[in-house]
């Protein structure tokens, strides 16, 4: 097992983020979890922070650095949906989703790379979605935010890829969490019909891929998009 590292998972109080945090904890890393309500799984450092607020992110990093040491792995996972058909989507529905999912990742990663550049090592994993690559009706805002993460990871790779830092995107399909529980039974049935694996995934199936993307074994992978979607997006 490698040396314990300090890992930050945004939006790690529930759902996929929580399972990612638990996965890193299980391999002996020091894990900090941020969310607006400041809860975290047992064993993780819980820090309240809002990804739409740069000052709040800066405060969170400072606290984590003081308590756990420099952050070597950033998992930008915090995300929201505000689905609506484009014809009906208002500015706030569009902008709030971009602000959390895309600008939130920018704010978090920007603060995170200062320590990584100093340390000449780091792992950035951005949680996107099959929706960002494949497109989903009613999710123009969400899809745009998640596609934006791909360009973001690739630009980071070109900017600081020579510093021992990788930036990759993990694009989950349908994972059983609060976010997908909100879908109606009819929607769930329709989605299921399109997934070659014919099932939704458990959060751990995403978390294990994220853990590996952040490992030494993945040192030569950067700017990549790794789908965890049961074959739904193939080639997108
Ligand atoms: P959940 O709704 O279960 O969790 C979302 C997390 O994001 C919570 O921890 C929430 O914490 C946090 N969050 C939301 N807004 C903010 C904010 N402004 N500042 C800080 N934290 C925030 O979602 P999932 O676990 O399902 O999704 C996790 C990620 O995976 C998201 O980026 C989502 O888009 C992506 N994804 C999910 C899929 C799925 O099928 N579930 C499929 C593809 C991608 P709090 O509200 O307490 O602040």
TrEMBL record:
Residue ranges constituting the Ketoreductase domain according to the UniProt record: 5-178
GO MF annotation, one: 3-oxoacyl-[acyl-carrier-protein] reductase (NADPH) activity
Enzyme Commission (EC) number: 1.1.1.100
InterPro entries with a match to the protein in the record: KR_dom, NAD(P)-bd_dom_sf, SDR, SDR_fam
Top-level EC class: oxidoreductase
A Pfam family annotated for this UniProt entry: adh_short_C2
UniProt keywords, alphabetically: Oxidoreductase
Family the UniProt entry places it in: Belongs to the short-chain dehydrogenases/reductases (SDR) family.
Name the UniProt record assigns to this protein: 3-oxoacyl-[acyl-carrier-protein] reductase
